[in-house]
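Dear colleague,

Following up on yesterday's call, I've attached the two folding results inline so they're easy to grep. Please treat them as preliminary; we haven't cross-checked anything against experimental data yet. The first protein's sequence and structure tokens come first.
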Amino acid sequence: MAIAWLAVGIAALIAEALTNAFFALFLAIGAAAAAVVSLFDVGLAGQILTAVMVGLVSALLGRPALMRAARRPSRHSLAAGAAMVGRTGRAEDHIGGFDAPGHVRIGGESWLAVTEARDGIDPGTPVTVLEVKGTTLVVWS
């Protein structure tokens, strides 16, 4: 029976990897606990109870912390954004304000970009990154 519980746990981990909802992870933890309990000749009802209780308790204790960690911006992404300031690139299409963003090619990658220039920036124009707002570059030509 332990192999069946491990299969359930693996399936739950695969589901978690596809969704990142932080629920299936706790089903996998419960299934792993049930697999351990099944090694001690506990009946199916005890195994199911173990899976449910361990999954529920681990979700109640662990999910809030995981959700906070997932929402927290990483230092790496902030450093990458700061590193973009001052870099130069070329407008791929017309770039306007936040209501009409365009794209800039910098270092072989395409980035969403806006400008405060009154008439916008035409495609092919060289631009410089002035600042980063979220995941959008503010550029000037």
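Below is the second protein, in the same order (sequence, then structure):
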Amino acid sequence: MSEATDRPVDGDAWADACAEDLAEEKARRRAQYGPQPGSAAEELRKLVDAVADKVSSLQSPLLGVAAQGAVQQAIRQAKSAVEPVIERNPQVFDHLAAAGNELLAAYRSAVEGQESRWTRTAADPSKATPAAQADKAADDPSDPRDEGRGEGPSGTERIDLD
């Protein structure tokens, strides 16, 4: 008999080894980078607590005792309104966070594209679009269309939004 058949077969040995490796990697990253952020709901709860603590700790001589009591009451009401929503729908905050990340990525892509067009036309004016050339001409103080009013070109012109 071979050695492979002499040992009992453990069907989950691979899964166990992977789980151990994953746990070790998580521990290594936690030691190197600190604890991972929690879910979006947990982070919102931490944010609400931190804001409440900060507002509570602010002692302003301009606010009287009654005003500070009113602020603390408002904070307690806000926390009591937020907590049930977080507990009932924690996955909603994860979806909102993911949607926010997607919006940020789209915005960043648009800005980077526009910046590359600006830098490309600034480096080589021959590659400028007609709209960019018209903008440069409109900035010229000797342009007769300006008539010294500082209002830019008069008349109708095509605006290139790309």
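For the second protein, one point worth flagging: Helices lie at 3-6, 13-33, 40-57, 65-88, 90-123, 130-138.

Best wishes,
A.L.
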